[in-house]
Amino acid sequence: MKYIASIDQGTTSTRCILFDKQGNIVSIAQKEHKQIYPKPGWVEHDPEEIWQNTLEVIAQCRVSKRISIKDIGACGITNQRETTVIWNKRTGKPYYNALVWQDTRVGKTVDELEKSTSSDWFRQKTGLPLATYFSGLKIQWVLDNVAGVREDAEKGDAIFGNMDTYIVWHLTGGVKGGLHITDVTNASRTQLMNLNTQTWDDEILEKLNIPKQILPEIQPSSKVYGNITSEVMEGIPLAGILGDQQAALVGQTCFNPGEAKNTYGTGCFMLLNTGTKPIPSKYGLLTTVAYQFENQPVHFALEGSVAVTGALVQWLRDNIGLIKNSQEVQKLAEGVEDNGGVYFVPAFSGLYAPYWQNSARGVIAGLTRYVNKGHIARSVLEATAYQTKDVLEAMEQDAGIEISSLRVDGGMTVNELLMQFQSDMLDVPVIRPKMIETTALGAAYAAGLAVGFWQNFEDLVQNWGVDKQWKPDMPAEKRTEYYHGWKKAIERSLNWED
Fold first, then answer.
1. Peptide linkage before 257 cis (omega within 30 of 0)
2. Torsion angle in degrees (nearest 10) through CA of 43, 49, 52, 53
3. Top-confidence residue, 184 or 258
4. 435 Cβ partners below 8 Å, 6+ apart?
C-alpha cells in the first residue's frame, strides 16, 4: 500500500485526492457542479451530475500520475453534510434534485414545529435546534411534495441518503446490492438520530412521518465497510466516512478535548472536541458527533456553523460582477485602510450559530458617499472574521474554557488579510498547517487507520506541521469598536422576512 484515496464531495465541487504516508498530496483532480436556484431560498444539486463527476475525478486522479489500483490501500469519503437525496434502489434514479444544506424551503414547517413541539424538544434528543439546515425536514418535504415518493418509501423502494450514502451506494454496486450506510457523524446531522443512543429516534420519525426503512444503517467513521465494485477503483476497501467538518477536525489531529479548528469554505465551521460526553449548548451551538473509530467510543464536539463565508466572495464574483476571480478580493480590500464604516451581514439563508434566526436576511450597513468597492470587498472578508468571533465566544462560554489558539484550514486561509484580521478580532494566534486540505486528509486518515496504513493517532499527529502563524496586532479599543459595529449590523438583519 503506497497511497490512500479520499473522495471529497463538497458543496461546489467533487475532488479525489491521493495521499502518501506522510499525509502529502500525491495527485488531485477536481470538478465543479451546477448550483441550481429554482426559487428564492431554494438551493439544489443534480445528484446524477455529482455521481458522474465523482467517477471522472477518481479516473483523472489516477491517470494523471499513472497510479495503479493495486497501489491504493483504501478509500475514504467526506461530504457536504445535511444535503438530502432520495432515490429508487431498483433503478438508481433520484426522484428529485438533492436539497442542499443551505436550502430554506422548509422555513414554514420550522415555525409550525417551534409552536407545536419546540426547538428544545429536538435539541435534547439530537443536539440540534429546529432549523432549515438539517436533513429531516428536507426528507419530509420530498416525501410530501414529489409524486410517488411516499408510496415507494412505504414499499421499501425509495431510500434516503446524504451525499456520502448516495456515493457509497453507487461505488459498492448500486442497483446490484450497493451498501446503504452512513457514518455516525453524518447521521448526527439529520436531526433524526438520538445523540445518546446513536440510533434513529422513533419518536422523531413518527412526528415527521418519515418511514424508518428509507434510512441508511449507521456505522462508525473508520471501518472496512466493503469493497468498491466500480471499475475506477475496483476491489479497493471502502474504509472511512466522515461529514466534511468532522473530517477536518480529524485532519487537523484535534483528538484531545479542548482542541478546536475552523474551516473556511462555502460556509465557516468551528468544531471543538469535547471528549466522550456530549455537552448540551446554552449559547446557540450544535452538539454533534466528532468521530467514532471502530471498537472505540463515540467522541463529541461543539460546533458553530456559519452559512455564508466563502460563498459571499463567490456571490460578489458571480451575482454582482465586482471581481473576476476569488483572488481579486484581497487585492481590492488591500487598496483601503479599513472598512470605511461598512458592515456586510450575509444572512442569505437566515443566520446560523449562535443566532439561529431563519427570518434574518442579508444587509450592507453603514454606507456613505465615501464608500468605494474596496470598502465593500473588505467588509466581505471581515464578515467571516466577525461571524467566527461570534461562534468562538459562544464556544468558550459553553465549554468553560478559553481557547489559546485556533487551527484553521480551507480555501479562504490563503487570504493573508483575512487571517491577520481574524487573529486581531479573536486576540489569539491563528495557525495554518502545512496541509490545508484537511477535510480530504481526515477522510484518508479514517480509511488508512481501518486498514493499518497508519497504526495509531501518534502517526497522524507527527504528520501535522505549521505553515504559518498570525498573531494579534490590534489595539483592544479598536477591536471593541469594530465588533460593536458588527453587532449593530446584525440587529438590522433580524426579522426581515415576515
1. no
2. -50
3. 184
4. 23, 24, 25, 251, 441, 463, 464
